[in-house]
Design brief:
Blueprint lengths: L1 H69 L9 E7 L2 E9 L4 E2 L5 H11 L4 H15 L25 H7 L3 E2 L15 H7 L4 H12 L22 E9 L5 E9 L11 E10 L7
Parallel strand pairs: 3-4
Antiparallel strand pairs: 1-2, 2-5, 5-6, 6-7
Protein name: General secretory pathway protein K
Keywords: Membrane, Transmembrane, Transmembrane helix
Organism: Acidovorax delafieldii 2AN
C-alpha cells in the first residue's frame, strides 16, 4: 500500500523531467538558429562592406586609366586590358572603343540579322524578321517627325519578339550610345561580336582575338563580313574594372565615357552611363 502512495509523485516527477528535457531541447534549437542567423547576417554585412569598397576601388582604377588616356594624343582603336593597382589591390581595366559593339541605332539589317541568329540563337527566318522589327522600331517617328532611336540597349525590350532571355544574350554585344555609321571595328570588338561578324565561326573569332592580344599588326580580317566592318576610331569608350573579392568572386564596375573635352566645364571627359555587376570565378569577357 505504501508503494502505491508513492506512484503518483513518481509519475509527476517523470513528467516534469520530460518537460524540462523538451524545454532544453527547444532552447538549444532556438540558440543554434539564432547563432546561425547572427553568423549569416555578419557574413552578409561583411560582403556588403567589401562590395562597397570594391566599387570605390573600381571607380578609382577607371579614373586612373582615363587620366592616362586623356593625356594621349593618338586615338585608341583597339580593345585593351590595362593593369593598375589602387591601395594595393590589383585591378584589370578593359578599355573598349564603343564601335567594337553593334550599334542598334545604325547597324544595317544584315548585321542585325546575324546578331540575332549567332548571338541570340534564333533560326534564320526568325532572326531576319526580328531584325526588320528592330529597324522599324528605331525609325518610328516621334511627335516632332524625327526617328525615335533607342536611348539605351534596354530599349530593345520594346521590340516585339525580344524577351528578357534573348536580351540577356545580347546585352554585352550592343550599344545605343554611339553616333556612327553602324559598322564595327573588329580590332575593338569582344570575342562574341567577332563571332557575329564571322557568321558564327568561333575559330576565326578566337584567332583574331588571340592575334590582337599578342599586339600583332596587320591582322587578317578577310574572313569577317566586309560590309559590316571598318577601322574607324571613336572618342567614346566603355571601361570595365574587375575587382577581386576575398571569396574568389569579382565585382565588375563599368563606365561609358566620352573623351571629348567639354567647353562649359573644362572636363577632359564625361560619363554618360555607369553600372556594376558580380561575376563568379572563371567568368570573364575575352
Amino acid at each position: 500500500m505504501q508503494l502505491q502512495s508513492f506512484r503518483p509523485g513518481f509519475r509527476h516527477q517523470g513528467m516534469v523531467l520530460i518537460a524540462v528535457l523538451w524545454l532544453v531541447a527547444a532552447l538549444s534549437i532556438i540558440v543554434t538558429g539564432l547563432t546561425r542567423s547572427v553568423r549569416e547576417e555578419a557574413r552578409m554585412m561583411s560582403r556588403a562592406r567589401q562590395s562597397v569598397e570594391a566599387l570605390g576601388i573600381g571607380d578609382a582604377a577607371i579614373q586612373i586609366v582615363l587620366q592616362g588616356m586623356s593625356a594621349q594624343s593618338a586615338p585608341r582603336g583597339r580593345l585593351d586590358e590595362i593593369d593598375v593597382a589602387y591601395r594595393g589591390v590589383p585591378v584589370s581595366v578593359q578599355v573598349m572603343p564603343l564601335n567594337g559593339l553593334i550599334d542598334i541605332n545604325a547597324a544595317a539589317l544584315p548585321l542585325l540579322t546575324r546578331l540575332y541568329a549567332v548571338a541570340g540563337g534564333l533560326p534564320a527566318e526568325a532572326a531576319e524578321a526580328l531584325a526588320q522589327a528592330t529597324v522599324a522600331a528605331r525609325e518610328r517617328k516621334d511627335s516632332g517627325g524625327r526617328a525615335a532611336r533607342f536611348e539605351a540597349g534596354e530599349d530593345l525590350l520594346q521590340v516585339p519578339g525580344i524577351d528578357y532571355s534573348l536580351y540577356a544574350r545580347l546585352s554585352g554585344l550592343i550599344t545605343a550610345d554611339l553616333r556612327g555609321g553602324g559598322k564595327v571595328n573588329p580590332m575593338a570588338a569582344p570575342l562574341e561580336v567577332l563571332a557575329v561578324l564571322a557568321d558564327g565561326d568561333v575559330a576565326v573569332a578566337q584567332r583574331i582575338a588571340a592575334d590582337r592580344r599578342a599586339g600583332l599588326e596587320g591582322i587578317d580580317t578577310t574572313a569577317l563580313n566586309a560590309g559590316a566592318i571598318d577601322n574607324a576610331t571613336v572618342r567614346r569608350f566603355r571601361l570595365q574594372a574587375r575587382v577581386p573579392l576575398v571569396d574568389g568572386t569579382w565585382v565588375r564596375v563599368a563606365r561609358t565615357v566620352d573623351l571629348t573635352p567639354r567647353a562649359r566645364d573644362g572636363m577632359p571627359w564625361h560619363t554618360f552611363s555607369s553600372g556594376h555587376s558580380f561575376e563568379s570565378v572563371g567568368q570573364k569577357n575575352n
